[in-house]
């Protein structure tokens, strides 16, 4: 009888141990999902951007990038200096706010190690006023404000020249200055102001040439409120910018592909109706 009981207990223990051995370990990993679903290791990239339209475009593509295994963290900046210095110092991975002439000047002036990844859209520069409806109404000695960085200052002067407000010696010179003005028939007074401040100062000025991102943030509609505006054929496409050490990384390339997708092209066209123009 005792032998029978011992045999029964032994068989029971074997069965229990076998059952325990069939359970997966608590720390066993799930199979990786190559489609970016649960289980795939996500890569987080931080991208600096102006609030509009750049950050809005980035927000639009976040779900698509999530499926590709990329977690996009958007860091908003309201100036044109920090987004570049933060990428250069590796505090963020990339930025999306500037055109190539501005980037080239910042690299030259600050010694930054940055490179363009891809062109995304054009933001036509526009001239705005609270007091006049046409440049013909500009009075003698009127005050005109333009951005104070060299690339956008030259761009603004070229726009004014092409619309007959002044005349430049060479309208193709990207970094024209007041010294390049050959004719100023209304003796206009030019003020160079930090680009972000221009919409706030509009009530104090006769005319201001404003970057579209800051115009949009201020509630201006470039297609309706600008007295005149650049056409889309210019060298000022806004870029995705990264560093030489990461611009070819898989995550940055996925971001570049998403920013130049047909989905983004449709979003830009429907959301901004000509105020922002796809560059691809």
TrEMBL record:
Entry keyword annotation includes Signal: yes
Cellular compartments annotated: Membrane
Signal peptide residue numbers: 1-18
Record Pfam families: Lipoprotein_9 (PF03180)
Domain of life: Bacteria
InterPro entries: Lipoprotein_NlpA (IPR004872)
Cross-referenced Gene3D superfamilies: Periplasmic binding protein-like II
Transmembrane segments: none
Protein family (similarity comment): Belongs to the nlpA lipoprotein family.
Protein name as annotated: Lipoprotein
UniProt organism field: Paenibacillus lactis
């Amino acid at each position: 009888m005792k032998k029978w009981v011992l045999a029964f207990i032994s068989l029971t223990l074997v069965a229990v141990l076998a059952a325990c051995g069939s359970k997966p370990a608590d720390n066993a990993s799930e199979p990786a999902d190559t489609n970016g679903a649960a289980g795939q290791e996500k890569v987080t990239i931080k991208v600096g951007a102006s609030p509009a339209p750049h950050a809005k475009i980035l927000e639009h593509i976040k779900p698509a990038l999530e499926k590709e295994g990329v977690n996009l963290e958007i860091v908003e900046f309201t100036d044109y200096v920090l987004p570049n210095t933060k990428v250069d110092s590796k505090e963020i991975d990339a930025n999306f706010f500037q055109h190539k002439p501005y980037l080239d000047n910042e690299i030259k002036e600050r010694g930054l190690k940055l490179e363009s990844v891809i062109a995304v859209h054009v933001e036509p520069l526009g001239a705005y006023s609270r007091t006049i409806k046409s440049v013909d109404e500009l009075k003698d000695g009127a005050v005109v404000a333009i951005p104070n960085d060299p690339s956008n200052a030259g761009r603004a002067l070229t726009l004014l020249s092409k619309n007959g407000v002044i005349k430049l010696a060479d309208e193709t010179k990207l970094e024209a200055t007041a010294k390049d003005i050959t004719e100023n028939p209304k003796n206009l007074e030019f003020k160079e102001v930090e680009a972000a401040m221009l919409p706030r100062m509009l009530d104090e000025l006769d005319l201001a040439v404003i970057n579209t991102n800051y115009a949009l943030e201020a509630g201006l509609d470039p297609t309706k409120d600008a007295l005149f505006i650049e056409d889309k054929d210019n060298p000022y496409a806004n870029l995705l910018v990264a560093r030489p050490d990461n611009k070819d990384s898989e995550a940055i390339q996925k971001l570049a592909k998403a920013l130049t997708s047909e989905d983004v092209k449709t979003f830009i066209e429907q959301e901004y109706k000509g105020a922002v123009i796809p560059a691809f």
